[in-house]
Amino acid sequence: MIDNLAQGVQAFTSNAYLVTGERTVLIDAGANFDIAAAIRDRVDGLDAVVLTHTHRDHVGNLEAVTDAFGVDVWGYDTSIDGVDRAIEDEETVQLGDHEYVALHTPGHKDDHLCFYSPDAGVLFAGDLVFQNGSFGRTDLEEGDRQTLIESIDRVLERIDEDLEEMHTGHGPSVSRNPYDHVELSSQMARRA
């Protein structure tokens, strides 16, 4: 089960997905709301926090989560404060009941990862792409439009048209033709 703990929060935050099952994981911690309470309302504990990237709106609540649940934080770059364990490009990571491949997808931020499970039909896209052809900002430090386009294209090559769900770093998840939204993001990033 995938539950966006930031849904309905009226503060500047990313989405924060609680993925329950055999391995209960929080994908991104969000910011500016009591995420520990939201987690406790749903589960007794966490096995890990997995980060799509380390922009403040995705990690602002990280210390509160690690203090409350005593878990390791997994991300691409362990030289960044708060990241305990590195996830390598193409490494397989268990989220809930499914195996996901981690794809290093810089362009929005150098340490950006997407997670894709062909078996589950799910993509965690972070801030790489969003619904309706939107895509991650490239005007922030470490942002680069050409690199972002290459990362979007890399994800497009990996996912298939039967993708069932795309969970993004901001805004609503996409469960209706999510592949088409990724494809449109690739086109729109080239035009901008």
**Which segments are poorly predicted (pLDDT under 50) over 5 or more consecutive residues?**
none
Categorize the overall geometry: globular
Major sheet size, sense and barrel closure: 6 strands, mixed
Residues in helix, %: 10-25%
Keywords: Hydrolase, Metal-binding, Zinc
Protein name: Beta-lactamase
Cofactor: Zn(2+)
Region (Disordered): 166-192
Polypeptide structure, described:
It comes from Natronolimnohabitans innermongolicus JCM 12255. One of its GO terms (molecular function) is hydrolase activity. InterPro entries: MBL_Glyoxalase_II, Metallo-B-lactamas, RibonucZ/Hydroxyglut_hydro. Keywords: Hydrolase, Metal-binding, Zinc. Residues 166-192 are annotated as: Disordered. By secondary structure, this protein is an alpha/beta fold. The protein has a single domain (2-191), classed as Ribonuclease Z/Hydroxyacylglutathione hydrolase-like (Metallo-beta-lactamase, Chain A, 4-Layer Sandwich), CATH 3.60.15.10. 24% of the residues lie in helices and 22% in strands. It has 5 helices and 11 strands; from the N terminus they run βββαβααββββββαβα. The strands form 2 sheets. Strands 1-2-3-4-5-6 form a 6-stranded mixed β-sheet, with helices on one face. Strands 7-8-9-10-11 form a 5-stranded mixed β-sheet. β10, α4 and β11 (165-168) form a beta-alpha-beta unit. The longest helix has 14 residues, at 145-158. The protein is globular. The model has no long low-confidence stretch (mean pLDDT 97).
